Amino acid sequence: MKGSFIQQRDSVCKALLHYSESLGGLEDSSGSIIDRLFRVRYKAVGILNDTDRSSLSEEERRRHDEEVKKQKISHHASQAVDVLEYIDLNYLKGRHTVQRSIEVMLSLLDVLNRLQGGMINSRFSPKGKKAFILGGAPIEVRKNFGHLAGRKERLKAISQALEDGLQTVSLDLEEIMFQST
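Predicted structure:
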């Protein structure tokens, strides 16, 4: 997936909404993401709250139960869209960036929770969790890249070194986390 974070976020939202619309038998996918979200949610909540099955035949109950299962999935996907819609990385550029970074991270964890079937009452809580801070090897820009004459060449080499360093740190962190469980 290419593009800015907002473009990628919107693509994920549209894909989740398309899936939810198909589960709900909704053919109208026009309008903004929010318009579509409310149509999906209205359909799902209507079926999920329709709990009187007493007048239904055995076959109708079976079909109703299947529809309820579909709408639970649809509802979870729409909740993930709801949270994703409010995530904007430009928010991180303001004051209090540490607090804002934490808020964005918790929102992303909330999206993950929703995609795994969780609800707002089962959201991630950092209480009782361990945190790991792992620094990678420093990148000595002047020493390692000072010989490169072109600005683009230097930036490309630095970016590659950063990517390699982050990959190494990520693998190290995964190993630490695996050993701690």
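Summary: The mean pLDDT is 85.
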